[in-house]
Specification:
single chain; alpha/beta; Rossmann fold; Helicase, Ruva Protein, domain 3; 4 domains; five-stranded parallel beta sheet; disordered C terminus
Length: 478
């Protein structure tokens, strides 16, 4: 039993310490990884810091209302299953909890059989939900949407807009940070449209010099400029009947903005150096990581072109706003990369996954994919461990640095004042600060903090007790 439950994490949110201790001991003895907190705000904070498979949420908690906690958890963490508990249940409370997204209601958490049965049913429900999600993705594969992995609410809104706009011929503007997958969204819109059997022609407006981009888009006539030894078709002609995807359209020069505006308004253009007007039966999908409204205000982007492009905007959320999708994305990339490189499918240790969930991902999905490609190649075993991750994921300073930044001390040692100091007091304070940093970075999960400090867990627990360290608003039973 214990082995089967290894890696399954449970958070107990219970204000009564004795009840929390009883539940914690019972579940931990069966191999579950268990953490505890004693109020609603701490529960939400804990869930933000660490991924939990199951949250056992007491009906009455201090702080935010239990109903709000259930609703918030259901929205933020669709992969987590919430089970309500109460020694004195009321029917209205149970009905409301289930309505807001709780999976089950355990009337007496001291009844160990009922508690374990609820946990096992929750895990079975979670497995079935994942299987159904995989089946839905298999269906979406026919429509070229399966490469956009996500079940979070922000991504569900993206999927909804893709399906609605694909049925029309409207111009689409895809907004989002670099690495969020804007081109995948464009391809999904095209693949589900009536133009799907015609070409999708992408153009990166930010990667092509302005003087070359005009010819790239509109083509040129023979002799139009030095080096134009023959007539060349542009991307708009190449996409006839299909779709042109203008990536990083916010980087387009003012002169080209005028020409693009004409294509959108009149569906006509001329090749560079040509006099013949060419009709363009195309759909335009544009994307940018820039704030186009601000660029309009700054005079860098035409207002009339902005409104022509912004007929149907689709905002692709950054990865930090859809953290619940990270486990799905990781599984997807690990399977695909393992097969592509012939190295077999690897998987993440739960603590390694927790480290990924804590990262802010400035490079978004592209950064995650690049990291996992590196891990697939370099990790020695099929199980990717926390120590396989780059140092920044454990909160450690990068090992590759050999020199301090200007004005910064590389050493962690305190500066010795001229008048001297009490050695034992300084060492004790230094140790206390390091332990607190490790605990805060790991959400007070002691085995992770011990690994970060290269300490035995028992040693760390003894130091925490000796120094009287305690997180605000939490019962530290783990």
């Amino acid at each position: 039993m214990a082995n089967d439950n290894h890696g399954i994490s449970i958070l107990i949110a219970e204000r009564r310490a004795a009840m929390a201790q009883h539940m914690r001991d019972f579940l931990a003895a069966r191999g579950f990884q268990v953490s505890c907190c004693n109020d609603a705000d701490a529960c939400l904070a804990y869930a933000d810091q660490q991924f939990f498979d199951i949250i056992l949420l007491a009906e009455r908690l201090a702080g935010a209302s239990t109903a709000r906690v259930v609703a918030t958890l259901s929205e933020r963490l669709p992969e987590t299953v919430v089970i309500m508990t109460s020694p004195e249940p009321t029917v209205p409370a149970a009905v409301e909890a289930l309505r807001l997204g709780a999976f089950d209601f355990v009337p007496d958490p001291q009844d160990e059989e009922s508690l374990l049965a609820a946990v096992e049913q929750a895990l079975q429900f979670r497995r079935l939900r994942r299987i159904n999600g995989e089946r839905r993705q298999e269906v979406n594969r026919k429509y070229d949407v399966d490469n956009i992995v996500g079940q979070s609410r922000p991504m569900q809104e993206v999927f909804r807009l893709i399906h609605k706009v694909a049925a029309t011929d409207a111009t689409v503007l895809i907004l989002g940070e670099s690495g969020t997958g804007k081109e995948l969204v464009a391809r999904a819109v095209h693949a589900q449209s009536s133009r799907a059997n015609r070409p999708l022609v992408p153009v990166n407006c930010g990667a092509i010099p302005s003087e070359l981009l005009e010819s790239e888009l509109f083509g040129h006539e023979k002799g139009a400029f030095t080096g134009a030894i023959k007539t060349r078709l542009g991307r708009f002609e190449m996409a006839e009947g299909g779709t042109v995807f203008l990536d990083e359209v916010g980087d387009m020069s003012p002169m080209l903005q005028v020409k693009l505006l004409r294509v959108l308004q009149d569906h006509q253009f001329e090749r560079v150096g040509g006099a013949k007007t060419i009709n363009a039966d195309i759909r335009v999908i544009a994307a940018t990581h820039r704030d186009l409204r601000r660029r309009v205000e700054e005079g860098l982007f035409r207002e009339d072109l902005f409104y022509r492009l912004n007929v149907v905007p689709i905002k692709v959320p950054p990865l930090r706003e859809r953290r619940s999708d990270i486990p799905l994305l990781a599984d997807f990339f690990l399977e695909r990369l393992g097969q592509l490189k012939g190295l077999g499918v690897k998987r993440l240790h739960p603590e390694a996954l927790e480290a990924l969930l804590r990262h802010n991902w400035p490079g978004n999905v592209r950064e995650l994919e690049n990291l996992l490609e590196r891990l697939v190649i370099l990790a020695d075993d099929d199980l990717i461990l926390p120590q396989d991750l780059p140092p920044k994921f454990a909160g450690l300073p990068p090992q590759a640095e050999t020199a301090a930044e200007p004005g910064q001390e590389r050493s962690l040692a305190p500066i010795l004042p001229e008048e001297g100091l009490d050695f034992n007091t300084a060492v004790d304070e230094f140790e206390r600060r390091l332990i607190l940093q490790a605990l805060e970075r790991t959400g007070w999960v002691k085995n992770q903090a011990a690994a970060m400090l290269r300490l035995n867990r028992t040693t760390l627990v003894e130091k925490i007790k000796k120094k009287g360290l305690m997180p605000a608003g939490r019962v530290t039973l783990d």
